UniProtKB/TrEMBL annotation:
Protein name: Amidase
Lineage: Bacteria, Pseudomonadati, Pseudomonadota, Alphaproteobacteria, Hyphomicrobiales
Gene3D superfamilies attached to this UniProt entry: Amidase signature (AS) domain
A Pfam family: Amidase
Organism expressing this protein natively: Parvibaculum sedimenti
Coiled-coil segments: none
One MF annotation (Gene Ontology) recorded for this entry: amidase activity
PANTHER family with a match to the protein in the record: AMIDASE 1
Amino acid sequence: MHGSVTVSSDEIRRLAFAEHGPASLQISETGALAGLDFAVKDLFDVAGYKTACGNPDRLRDSAPAVATAPSVVVALAAGARLIGKTHTDEVACGMFGMNPHFGIPINPKAPDRVPGGSSSGSASAVAAGFCDFALGSDTGGSIRVPASFCGLYGLRTTFGRVSVAGVMAMAPSFDTVGWLARDAAMLRRVSEVYLGPVGKYSAPRLLLARDTFDIPSRSIGAALLPFANALGATREITLFEEGVDYWLDTFRPLQLHDLWSTLGQWGTAPGRNLSQAVAERIELSSTIKPEAVAAAVLKREALTTRLIDLLGDDGFIIIPTAHDLPPLRDAPVSAQVEFREKTLALTCIASLTRLPQINILATTFDGCPIGLSLIAGPRGEERLLAFAENLGALDGAA
């Protein structure tokens, strides 16, 4: 365990899993995932069970789901056994895994620090070895950030490639499904039941987005750069040609307007039980002007076109996954806000352009894992998975 903090296995399990999920569910004993256990973020419907989405009102008011989300059905049909639902940031609004209603899941690799969100319980369960893989959702970094914080491999899929039916909508023009695993071989094995076989591919064109390494704290950027360069022959590019603020100013109105459209009415109902941070975020989402949304839509399309042209069929962009080590579990809200904005500058790249991104374990710093990310062109997951599996852990620090 990290530092002087020691946490029991029972405590990790208690804070990772929701009590209202299934303890065991299996529909097939044969298939590509036979013999594997998995967990699902409590945003995904499982027939016969409630979906609380990290909020006590949802748990109280919702009826048990009548159908299981297709993304969960795929794993079940491939022979995997579902062992539970995992906690999430409240209605997926969060980057850290800090839920005032259900607690903060433990980061098994750094128990004094947060696990990352909003797929926090999924990351905790996999990192602790309770299951072989877990499903999560990723809107603005909700798989990639916890993967980096907990030393896991995590895949955000191309927007629209995996069904989000039966998954709580948070920001529908960004929401994707993905999964987490402890190693690249398992990530590929799971991916193949969703995406098809991962073949052999020629070496990718590696594009090192040098300006993105200036966003992390200096020590983190300096620790990651040698590993980025060790991936192979790279060409340095400037990704934020328009400036970092341009990307963030494109992302914010689109995501917030989406949030208001999906959760605004529910979130502002009289007597709604919401944490202060989520209530404020939903209130902020009500202020987005239509003209700001319209302008951001065009900017998003231009950014997407530029990156797709840059990547082609064989390019990978290399970036840091997060800008710093996970915040401490007792970090003040002010520190969380600053952290979120800086990491969002990195995670918004794939979110805005709707591209697939994989987090791989690069190294450790001050006893904490730090991840490196690769972004491919649309439907480039198979190439990312093959490359990651060939690499293994870059310095053996799995």
